[in-house]
Each structure stands twice: as C-alpha cells, then as structure tokens.
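forwarding from the other thread:

> can someone predict this with zinc ion?

sure thing
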Amino acid sequence: MGCHELSWLGRLLLLMQLVDGVFSWGKYGHYAVCKIAEGYVSEDAMGTVRKLLPEWAKGELAAVCSWPDDIKWNYNWHWTSSLHYVDTPNSKCNYNYYRDCYDSSGHRNHCVTAAIFNYTNQLFSAYQGYNPRFNYNLTEALMFLAHYMADVHQPLHVGFIGDLGGTSVKVGWYRRKTNLHHVWDTLIIDTAVKTLYGSDLSAMIQAIQKNITDAWSNDRSSWESCIYNNTVCPNLYASESVRFACKFAYRNATPGTTLQDDYFLSRLPVVEKRLAQGGIRLAAVLNRLMPLQWLDDNQHEVA
Ligand SMILES: [Zn+2]
C-alpha cells in the first residue's frame, strides 16, 4: 500500500473515530443507565416493557439500550444519527430548544431532545387510552427512548457546536491520545471500572445504586418530576447537561492537555450522578407511560 492510500486510510479511521465519538455514552454507560432504571420500573410497566422487547433481549431492558448505536451506520437508519445529541452555540452554557435543536443540514426538530419527545409521544398514544394515528413500531420507540434518555444526560451530548461536543478537542487520557468527547462517553467509566471496581461493571452499578438510596435519596423525587406534570422533560435534562459541560467537562481540558488523576477523580462523581439521573428518569417516564400492564393492544389487565 502506497503512502497515498495509507494517509487516506488514516484519515478515514480518524474520521470514523471522530464521528463515532460524537454519538453516545459507550456500551457501559447505556447498560448502567438501563440497569439502574430496571430497579425503579414498576411491575406493571415492566410487564409492558417485556412485551415490547425483542426476543433477543431475553426480557432484559438493559440488553437493548445500545441498539441505536449499533444501527446508526446502516443506510436505512442514517437519519437517526443526529438524534443522539444537541449542540449549543460556542461558549453558550445554556440550551434553548428553538435555537439549538436542528441537525447539521439545518433540519429543525432533529436532535436528542426532539427524539425523546417523539418516542415518548408514540408510546403515550399507545398506552394512554386513545388510538394512535399511525401504526408506530413501539418496540423501536422503547429502544430509542431508553437510549436517548441516557445520551441527553451525557454532558458533552449537549456541548458546543464548534468542537462537535468536545470531539475535536484533542487531549491525552493518561498515556493515550483521544478526544474530550470520548473521555466522557467511555474513558472515565472504563477507567473507574478497571481501577476502582475490580474490572466489574456491576460493582460500579451497585455503588451508584447505593448512592441513590443513601446520599441522593432526598434528590430522587425532584429528579423524577417534570414541570406541569409533563410525562418527560428533556429540555431540563439538556439544560443541566450543558451546565455540567461548561463547569466540569470543558474546564481544564483545553486542546493538548493531558488529563490524569485530578481530572478523573473530580469528574467521576459527575458521571456517576448523570448515570443515576438518567436511570431514575427513564424509569419514571416508563412508569408514567405504562401505569397498567397491557395484555394486548386494547385491553387492560385491570378493567
Ligand atoms: Zn447515542
């Protein structure tokens, strides 16, 4: 292979890494959010969730929560790739739906908060007593909702447009080269699992669950509630995320910085709190959407 091909391949790999980094908590993050949610989904709602889950999930919500990342490169699903995040104008530490929710081609209502509203509405129309105007695929709606509820809690999924949510901010993570977005999607969690939790993700999830019942027990009901008793409030989650992005993610992480223990240990509590909030809120939304277990398309178990 000549130099030309090598540099072309190198650029492609770099681009794939860049683009991949834009989109999502890593698999651990999504699994953790959905595992935490499973502990707070009511029996009735979980009964409905299990009926919607595809067979390959084997009744486990957490098994499907990375699915939107797995399919986004497929041509048929490419339109979903802008639904994993929302960007704010450079250096703006606030979020505004009407200002910020559009994709790179300028299509409005193509962003993570719009996707959360959309899939919540699809499930709402099916389970809240009126016939949906469209024949929605509710299995897909559930899998997208569970995924995007997690994404919107990753602070750099609501980052600045100029650096693609930290993706073009090149930093070091201990001895490796990476970008700031990937640090928040994956590396903080991976490093914590490896160095603090004996390479056992479930030990990290248990530690977060313990915090929910101990240190954060007074916060849980405020995390669950939405203004005006709305079913879901993604604009709030996005506003929190961009504030965390400014206060914790971008701070002391300018291009070329090598991030090590100081950064890792001070940001890990933020990551763990966002995973907890994502899980608690996903459960709350499912409980509000599916208060009664549905036997089939039209009949309640409880008449
Ligand atoms: Zn995602």
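Residues 23-24, 68-69, 84, 147, 151 surround zinc ion (CB under 6 Å). thats all i got for now
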